[in-house]
Specification:
This protein has 35 residues and is an all-alpha fold. It has one domain. It is built from 1 helix and no strands.
């Protein structure tokens, strides 16, 4: 069983990576589909 601290750090790192990916995809989507 991993400790609570490890789970929290991994969760925050995964959340940060996911948010960065969403922001990057939104940025690319705005650039490629501009009218």
């Amino acid at each position: 069983m991993p400790e609570t601290g490890e789970v929290t750090v991994v969760g925050l790192a995964f959340l940060g990576l996911f948010m960065t990916l969403l922001a990057f995809l939104g940025f690319v989507d705005r650039r490629t589909r501009r009218n």
